Amino acid sequence: MNAAARLGAYAAGLAVVFTGAFAAAGAVVPETTVSAWTQQAEGTPMAQHTDSGQDPVETTSGSHAEHTPQGVSREQSGYLLQEVSAPGTTGDAGELSLTITGPDGAPVTEFETSHGRQMHLIVVRSDGTGFRHVHPVMDEAGRWSLPWQWEAAGTYRVYADVVPAGAEQNLTLTRTVDVAGAFTPAAPEATATDEVDGFQVSVEGDLSAGSTSDLTISVTRDGQPITTLEPYLGAYGHLVALRAGDLAYLHVHPEGAEPVAGEVSGPDVEFATTAPTPGRYYLYFDFQVDGQVHTAQFALDTTGAADTRPSAGATAEGHGEH
Model-level pTM? Predict the structure, then answer.
């Protein structure tokens, strides 16, 4: 996506959708839609309708979200996340590395820049704890790496969020890594507040299953609103959401225009989101103040029930108008 298109997408506001399969009871479905659903049921990949400059499953007004959640497979559109190498036990200093191969089987060495980086690497334990959002470096052979050390044992999901050159879409490829050691799984309780590094962070708004929800994240310190949120990777805040159970992945940015370097904002950052199914979602909010990045974590339960029937304004591809 060129710079003008990016700014237009931010100005329009980013409506973020986890999409699920549609149920067609009582609906008159166009033949093209039936064909598309049949392909999906038979395992034929569906075309993704997001712009290459946007994050996975992200959509703007007038665009479409992908049919299935991102971040649940190591392969997408012929691109494959090869085995992830990392230390096998806690406390061992080492390196985390990975390679992505293309449809031709060769390592991919050319990637587009998305939100200031060629790769966003998300690592989180299967119980929703231990979240990290980092940016490895690629060598000439297409191998990505960065220094790494595990703080706790368990099974971790590693998400590579990239846009290979020529792919024309974001890819979110994932694998699991097992870390040996004593493991006591956590059970994060539903919470809309967090305290991190002296900041108090809260999220307001209901996460409604099956309909658009407006969420506002606010940052304060000692009861005073923080109005010095700095641009970080082209936005005033990053929000990653994972669906509890399968850890389907969503990486989004706030509504509004892309900030100019040197500008600050706050204390509120607004998002528009839609959860596909009822249940719990883990949210991770990255923000930057005084050159330091902090991460607040929440766990929200949806309200209401998801309506997965096609809307009256559904297009021939089975999407409702936004």
Answer: 0.73
